[in-house]
Specification:
- The complex is a heterodimer.
- Chain A is an all-alpha fold.
- Chain A has a domain at 55-184 and 220-337: Orthogonal Bundle (ABC transporter involved in vitamin B12 uptake, BtuC), CATH 1.10.3470.
- Chain A has 15 helices and no strands.
- Chain A has helices at 31-53, 61-86, 94-138, 143-170, 188-199, 203-216, 221-239, 241-251, 253-258, 263-288, 302-312, 317-336, 339-362, 366-385, 397-409.
- Chain A starts with 30 loop residues before the first helix and ends in a 20-residue tail after the last helix.
- The relative contact order of chain A is 0.18.
- Chain B is mainly alpha-helical.
- Chain B has two domains: 1-27 and 318-372; 55-315, ABC transporter involved in vitamin B12 uptake, BtuC (Orthogonal Bundle).
- In chain B, strand 3 and strand 4 (192-193) form a beta hairpin.
- The radius of gyration of chain B is 23 Å and the shape is globular.
- Chain B starts with a helix and ends with a helix.
- In chain B, 50% of the residues are buried.
- Classes of the chains: A mainly alpha, B mainly alpha.
- The interface between A and B is large, with 53 and 52 residues.
């Protein structure tokens, strides 16, 4: 029972007893090349949209800064998801662990600066992870059921603790007093030069300048920490013996057991790490909001969107980073500009659908091309006959994008083969 | 009769009472005192009759039962319909809009409203169902997204340039005329029991009969227990997924109805949220059994209503949510533990029989477990 069910018979489907192992699809391009091509394509589409619709905010510095702030919690949750699901444990409880992390971050921040905030957030998130591990690994409870219970419990515990501890300080049982934020730093010369370039409003150049300036101005250590954690996740999980063993527990725990791997231990460590990452995500949320406080309902399903980012990224760190950026961008755009700018995103969708049509025609897939063309026309009609999207829907842009992405991409993904499967030591067949 | 049917609930209750007591002790309160305060709170309302606490519990129980039944229909097939939250919101909103814009004689009017609510709830579950069977998207993720979008859609539709009107300080839909309302049983100062409490009882009975006495229920449970065996028996798994999710959504659509037709008479801006998630917990608590769900709903409603009394003994009332979470966790763990005990006992039994017959004592239970 994984989050995306691969239809049997497709390449990469979890091998049933009856089917032959599918030949591994050879990667034509290395990962970094795919990433660079993707980046160029995204910037191209955005600057084209920005040029054709006259919405410079699409690639402005403030949009990028909001994107970074909002993408970090999603990214960290997505990384947490990778750790847990690579070891075969579905973690729907990320949301609850993140909520615990937000409370911990506020409490830690009140008692000793931003780094303490990150630390306490991670510890509380890890405790949520430990609970999930006890229920699922030791007692064999269904992973999703335990996750749902942890989400319930996480919300309850923080509500209770917030009433008990924050209410006397902030006169509000739902909020904490503001905590100290990280000192940010910029690259002064570079930032100014890029600012000039952005202000000139040249077609592609200014867009690139805006995006880059957003990344080098008022950088928070949180961003650096997160990037470090992405790299660390990759190195530990894919380039170390420990990671190989951990991932083997997610692919075939019985085989790992027969090779002497302590599957329970690896699953425990993975789920606890997952909780800690979600907790750091909560800390990123607290430190990134202004004023930087804990408030009830702050996570707003970001834990789930983190999971969606992980699925979008095919259970790998680089892809998860791309997914989190996409979701953070659609959220950040809403904050730094108005409904008209988000409306312009529809235009981007038309361009993307148009590219899809060409690609499908090139691959001689006529139905796919037809569907993409129909989608492009529909979205364009909506774009043409409306001036702005209803503001009530703007906060839910990431959710809608998630649905579309899942619908389009789900079958091309390959989750860990034993993701969500019950496993008990010594009972393999 | 397996041990699990008696032992597991007892174990779960013992564990959760113990855990709740620990939590209360940690927050510096006397558990017995706190529990007594909660019971007194309800008892006073029954005896003195100056507060509506007891009636509130009954009404809430009915609402929780509907939500939990919706969850249980999905659980029977191993489908986790997290989207009940969004489905009941859309169901209630659409039913309130339609109900206020049509005029029909009394019983017909509210029956139509209920049917509209069910259809709207089912339609909100349609997209996740279609995505699941055609694109393989797990229903948990798609329904979570649909929940969020439901909040946006509801906020949009209740805008004053759409269907919203201003009544006092509150934005709501047009009130439903009297013919569309369902009268309750008035108990004077003790409050009014919603008429639709009986709908919840009826739904639970129907659910019990369908699951245990019809071919459809059998196919549903069979697909949940072992999809491969069900497929071999001629059950169309994809059709069952769509039907189960739509049925779950339809029942979810009813969750908001007791409050709207019995008290609010319109969908208002402060329409209650959270019943869907409570329903998931209660269905787990009641093991998808209609009677279990009824008791689970009662317990949930008791905790939710009488938590106000905890303030009097110096405990923040939010501790009730922690208790609910702990109870669900203890229940699922207790059932898992007892299931293992049962399996071990059965394996020993099989082993004894087989060793007498000098055959290879492989464990048939491991296969049964793998199928789950």
């Amino acid at each position: 029972m994984s989050m995306v069910e691969v239809q049997p018979g497709l390449p990469g489907a979890p091998g049933g007893a009856m089917e032959m192992p599918a030949p591994a699809r050879r990667r034509v391009l290395p990962g970094w090349a795919v990433f660079s091509i993707g980046m160029v394509a995204v910037i191209g589409v955005l600057s084209m949209t920005s040029y054709l619709t006259g919405q410079p905010a699409l690639t402005s510095t403030s949009t990028m800064q909001n994107t970074v702030t909002l993408a970090l919690p999603i990214l960290l949750c997505g990384l947490g998801g990778i750790w847990s699901e690579r070891s075969g444990m579905i973690n729907i409880g990320l949301e609850g662990m993140m909520i615990l992390g937000t409370w911990g971050a506020a409490w830690g921040g009140l008692h000793g600066g931003p780094w303490m905030s990150v630390l306490v957030g991670a510890v509380l998130g890890a405790m949520g992870g430990l609970l999930h591990a006890v229920a699922t690994v030791t007692f064999g409870v269904n992973h999703i059921v335990s996750g749902v219970a942890i989400n319930l419990l996480g919300a309850g515990v923080t509500k209770y603790l917030s009433t008990l501890i924050f209410a006397p300080l902030s006169d509000n049982p739902r909020d904490s007093p503001p905590v100290e934020q990280f000192d940010t730093f910029s690259a002064p010369g570079l930032s100014d030069w890029l600012g000039d370039l952005e202000a000139q409003q040249r077609v592609v150049l200014s867009d690139v300048a805006g995006i880059l300036r957003g990344l080098v101005t008022r950088v928070s250590p949180m961003l650096l920490l997160s990037i470090l954690l992405v790299i660390l996740t990759y190195v530990v999980l894919w380039r170390s013996r420990f990671g190989l063993r951990l991932r083997s527990c997610g692919e075939n725990p019985v085989a790992s057991e027969s090779l002497g791997v302590n599957v329970y231990l690896y699953k425990y460590l993975a789920v606890i790490a997952s909780g800690a990452l979600a907790g750091i995500g909560g800390a990123a949320l607290v430190l990134g909001s202004s004023p930087s406080i804990y408030s009830e309902g702050q996570t707003a399903n970001r834990g789930f969107i983190g999971l969606a980012a992980m699925i979008f990224g095919n259970w790998r760190p680089g892809g998860t980073l791309a997914g989190a950026t996409l979701f953070g961008y659609s959220d950040g755009l809403r904050l730094s500009s108005g409904p008209e700018t988000v409306h312009a995103l529809l235009y981007s969708a038309v361009i993307v659908a148009g590219l899809l049509v060409m690609w499908q025609l090139f691959r001689r897939r006529w139905t796919g091309a037809g569907l993409a063309a129909a989608g492009a026309v529909t979205v364009y009609v909506i774009y043409f006959y409306t001036d702005e999207l209803p503001t009530e829907f703007l906060p839910y842009t990431p959710h809608i994008i998630t649905l579309v992405v899942l619908a389009l991409a789900a079958q091309r993904l390959r989750p860990p083969a034993a993701d969500g499967m019950p496993y008990r030591r010594g009972e393999g067949d | 009769m397996k041990r699990s049917s008696v032992l597991a609930p007892l174990l779960a209750i013992a564990a959760s009472i113990l855990l709740c007591a620990v939590v209360l002790l940690l927050s510096g309160a006397n558990p017995i005192e706190a529990f007594a305060a909660m019971v007194d709170f309800v008892w006073d309302s029954i005896v003195d009759g100056h507060t509506t606490v007891a009636v509130d519990i009954v009404n809430r129980t009915a609402i929780y039962m509907l939500a939990a039944l919706a969850a249980a229909i999905g659980f029977q097939m191993n489908l986790l319909n997290i989207g009940i939250e969004g489905q009941y919101r859309i169901g209630a909103l659409v039913a309130a809009i339609v109900g206020s814009s049509i005029v029909l004689p009394a019983p017909l009017h509210w029956i139509v409203i209920l049917i509209v609510a069910m259809i709207a709830g089912a339609l909100w579950a349609l997209l996740p169902a279609v995505l699941k069977v055609t694109r393989g998207v797990h229903e948990v993720l798609s329904t979570i997204m649909m929940n969020a979008i439901a909040f946006g859609l509801a906020a949009y539709l209740i805008r004053r340039d759409q269907f919203g009107i201003l009544i006092g300080n509150n934005v709501s839909t047009e009130p439903i005329p009297d013919s569309g309302l369902v009268g309750g049983i008035s108990l004077g100062d003790r409050g009014t029991v919603f008429g639709l409490v009986f709908l919840a009882v009826l739904a639970a009975a129907l659910y019990g009969v369908t699951m245990n006495r019809t071919r459809f229920g059998f196919e549903l449970k069979a697909s949940g227990l072992s999809p491969t065996a069900a497929a071999a028996g001629g059950v169309n798994a994809k059709r069952m997924i769509v039907i189960a999710l739509l049925a779950s959504g339809a029942v979810a659509g009813l969750v908001g109805m007791p409050e709207i037709l019995g008290r609010d008479h319109a969908y208002t801006l402060n329409f209650a949220s959270g019943y869907g998630f409570a329903g998931l917990g209660i269905a787990l608590l009641g093991r998808n059994h209609p009677v279990g769900i009824a008791f689970g709903s009662l317990l949930w409603a008791f905790l939710e209503t009488s938590k106000a009394a905890l303030d009097n003994v110096g405990v923040p009332r939010e501790i009730a949510t922690i208790m609910q979470g702990l109870i669900v966790l203890s229940v699922v763990i207790a059932y898992e533990v007892v299931k293992r005990l049962d399996q071990a006992a059965e394996q020993r039994k099989v082993g004894r029989v087989l060793s007498a017959a000098e055959t290879d004592p492989t464990d048939p239970m491991a296969e049964a477990e793998a199928a789950k």
